[in-house]
Specification:
alpha/beta, four-stranded antiparallel sheet, 13 helices
Length: 460
Amino acid sequence: MRYLPLTPAERSEMLTVIGAATIDDLFADVPAEARLPGPVPGLPNHASEMAVERHMSALAAQNLSAGAAPFFLGAGAYRHHIPASVDHLIQRGEFLTAYTPYQPEIAQGTLQVLFEFQTQVARLFGTEVANASMYDGSTACWEAVAMAGRITRRRKVVLCGGLHPHYGATIETMAKFTGDQIERQVPVLTAEPDHGELIAAIDGETSCVVVQYPDILGRIPDLPAIAAAAQAHGALLIAVVTEPVALGLIEAPGKLGADIVVGEGQSLSVGLQFGGPYLGLFGCREKFVRQMPGRLCGQTVDADGRRGFVLTLSTREQHIRREKATSNICTNAGLCALAFSIHMTLLGGEGLAKLARVNHDRARQTAEALSAVGGVEVLNSAFVNEFTVLLRRDAREVVRELADYGVLGGVSLGRLYPDRPELGHALLVTATETTTDQDIHALAAILGEVLANAHEGSPT
């Protein structure tokens, strides 16, 4: 057995050393009314390791996993092929054993990978600098908002309606502790995003504007226009990329005027894994580097003139006083960053562009197939690998029925926006290089059957 608990004799010896008669004596300072009188209600009693494994396996078998069915889910979490070589390389000792460089001078393998990772992210995002990764995309987005506040000394934050609602919720949660004023818009079901309301909300009190690229509906916003409007008022444009593969096909946001670019690196070599661990990406203009959260690796030479790597900036609370830190989120997902960097190295620039084109082709074929289904309307005029369709029925019900047929058909916007009934008929569909012709045919055929068997209605 892998779990070896203490023996009664060992417990007795430990109690003797600390001068306690029983384990209950350790909790003497806890009021009796705050102690549990017995087992926790609703939880089963202890069981053997094998019994627990059987029970957990039975629970897992109730899930319809991504690899067991046609899979069209996205909305910030994507299924891509992960080369077997990635898993092999991340287990090499020079990378794996010290992937958190608390003693950076003896973690040269880790620091070199993070140095390369920073270069890859900066080139991917079109920014001048990038840090050595962050916890995940949503918290990286909040860190960008906080950074913008330090730079502009303002507190008004405008969130584009196309921003993923989970990212918006993270920002709103953290803003409760900082006093930032959040103006959060909601998406409007149009073929192309209308930025008029967003631009009108920017004023002299605005710290930053946060725009997802592509947005939650799969549309591609006009970043240069938004950047010009923000910067005319002294505000910063923060671009959010939840699907980095898309940047193999569309222009990098840093080249379109974004001051800070953040994102989620999960789609490149980090599996879905029920929501984590994921990987935060962060890049910005070089003039803002001392306000950038996280860590920055640099290249130097040692006393003998040999190339070496160091932590150039470490402004996290683990390294300096908490009140002086630019970030208090201490996890930087170093192992996920290693996997991301290896995958990007294997792809190269041409490989990433080819992968993005394959994703777009698969998505385009899926959109064409669905547009031929009665009761389905494709919303987008342009997209990369995910797009929105309008159904004649509530999309939440349709998603559930598709799952009953063994198809994971997309993400309902009604699920993401439960308080916005006008979005209830919208379904976000994603296709990647893992999507096959058979998958597309199954989705179109079964969706047509589900809609045909339903009562007639019209999308809102």
